[in-house]
Amino acid sequence: MVFGPLVEELWAGWWWSGIEHAAGRVIFSGIQPTGILHLGNYLGAISNWVKLQNEALPNDEILFTIVGWHALTLPQNPQQLSASRRDMLATLLAFGIDPKRSVVFYQEDNLCHVELSWILSCITPLGQLRRMTTWKSRLAAKRNANDESEVDESMLNAGLFTYPVLQAADILAYKATHVPVGEDQTQHVELTRDIADAFNRTFDPEKKFFPLPDVLITPNRRVRSLKDPSSKMSKSSPDSSSRIMLTDTFSQIDKKIRGAVTDSIQGITYDPVNRPGTSNLLSILSACEGVDVEEVARRYEGKGHGALKKDASEALEGLLKVPRAEFERLRLDQTYLNAVAKEGAAKAKERSQTTMERVRTMIGLY
């Protein structure tokens, strides 16, 4: 995923359709407009979305959105945000999201999200929002960064506090049935279910208008920093050699992999606890090849880190070469990107407006 206020949080959990679907799933996933992604973002989220799209049944509906409103929970440079949202769209398309099979759009192009968010915020208890992990972690971080003992909620903005309600609205506007998330991202789906249940009990106790979306756990490959394998790969690290960006050239990839931290133990084994650096390279190679990591490790019995790093670099180049070139082509074709976003937003609004018409009727605003 996913769309929390943390800049690199990828939140997956959205879907589409204001009309009823007889049997298919309605699956929706969103991502923050953080611009160019790194390898961990791709393996942890985008590759799962492509798999969901490609393996969807005929009656399933899939929607992907770039969540600009969620990005505003942290300070943004307007020009940079504008460029980052376009780069994110180009990235999704280059790495396998097909606008003919999935709806792709910018969240801010559909006002149904914010309308439903306001309605849902009026039935959401403050206590539930205060229990959200992201809110508590941001408040704790603010306190730790401040020398004064008196630090309270007033130091954080209201959007940071209420964005989980907007996430619920993102989901419920399309009456999603399934939310693809990693195992550590289920709290937001649980809140969405609580809010949907509260709405149903208040306004539609018999028919239960909103479905309670199910969590769809997706594989979450945790790619570690190449320089500090105790930490995850991150764009926020000051050391650019700690991460593989999806736009890196082969020479950049090879240099970063050759400089990756490993250990002085003889031989190659998969042991994330005692050999995190070596295990990280094995995990990256196994992800590129689509092979179990233990099977990959067995191939390197009697070999050294030089061979492992060489193969990891070549496998990464094989994974990224074609989509990297496609990304560079797409980011220059603003006409096409705008057309994809416009068409996707029109489809999203068509479905969500049907939902909102019924919601307004149920709450007495029609």
From TrEMBL:
GO CC aspect terms: mitochondrial matrix
Keywords: Aminoacyl-tRNA synthetase, ATP-binding, Ligase, Nucleotide-binding, Protein biosynthesis
Catalysed transformations (reactions): tRNA(Trp) + L-tryptophan + ATP = L-tryptophyl-tRNA(Trp) + AMP + diphosphate + H(+)
PROSITE patterns, A to Z: AA_TRNA_LIGASE_I
Gene Ontology MF, one: ATP binding
CDD domains linked: TrpRS_core
Pfam family for this entry, one: tRNA-synt_1b
EC number: 6.1.1.2
Family, similarity comment: Belongs to the class-I aminoacyl-tRNA synthetase family.
Name of the molecule in the record: Tryptophan--tRNA ligase, mitochondrial
Lineage start: Eukaryota, Fungi, Dikarya, Basidiomycota, Agaricomycotina
